[in-house]
Known about the structure:
two-stranded antiparallel sheet; globular; mainly alpha; 434 Repressor (Amino-terminal Domain); 5 helices
Amino acid sequence: xTIVINLDVALARRKMKSKDLAERVGITEQNLxxxxxxxxxxxxxxxxxAICRELNxxxxxxxxxxxx
Length: 68
């Protein structure tokens, strides 16, 4: 099982910089970068909620399941 994180795509579609999103969501750029690259073991639902709110998207726009 692989979860693919498409946060870069969502940011590009909205022409928003990671720095701006991190600031609006209330997390550090470093933590947002870790999320973007999939180097985290989990994401708080509150963080996902804030990201979706700021990007005006659904969680499925950011997260995708890719079978092995």
